[in-house]
Every structure is written in C-alpha cells, then in structure tokens.
Amino acid sequence: MKTKDMELPRFKSESEEAEWWASPAGREYVKRKSRELKERGVKPAGSGLVAKLNKRKSVQIAIRLPEGDLERAREVAGTKGIGYQTLIKMLVREGLERERRRR
Predict the structure, then answer these.
(1) Does the model's pTM come out above 0.70?
(2) Are residues 38 and 68 in the same domain?
(3) How far apart are CA 30 and CA 80, in angstroms?
(4) Helix 14-22 × helix 24-39 angle, to 10°
(5) Which residues contact 58 (CB under 8 A, 6 or more apart)?
(6) What confidence score (pLDDT) does residue 3 get?
(7) Is residue 75 part of a domain?
(8) Which pLDDT tens digit goes with each residue over 2-51?
C-alpha cells in the first residue's frame, strides 16, 4: 500500500490514538510518510506533542534511574519513534497530571 493510499483512522480517544501510533500499522505509516517526504525533499516536521514539549522552558536536572528502567524506556521510546528522554518527560507529565486530578 502506498503512503498516498494510507489514511489515518479516526480515533475515539487519545489512548486509542496512542495505541495505534505505537502499533505496527502506526509505525509503518510514519516510516512510509517519512520516506515519501524525503523523496520529495521535504524535511518532516515531527510530532506536534514533542514540539510542544520542546518549546516549553525546561530546567536541566540529574536523576538516577535503575539501569533496567532506563533500558526499558529506551526500548519503549524506540517502538514509538521518539527519544527516551522525551518519553520520560511525557511519562512524568502524565503522572503529575494524574496525581493532580486525584486531589
């Protein structure tokens, strides 16, 4: 199937969308779309969410994580096509938001 023939499904929720992007179909869509853009000489813009995270002012910190957790973060990030540090920032944000809603 060519990229032009591929269409994004309609999602009922953010979690359904996240699952699709992390699935083989979602990863294949990204790969094909990236190849198509590269062939046309267009530099891909990347994820809107990642761009939003990168625009926010951030403070550099040092944090120690168990090796296993860091390796797992790298694996998960790789399947999602993002950097492991971006994934960790997203997970921290989601956890903080979840805790805020509990109050």
Answers:
(1) no
(2) no
(3) 10
(4) 70
(5) none
(6) 41
(7) yes
(8) 444 667 888 888 888 888 888 888 888 888 888 888 888 887 666 676 67
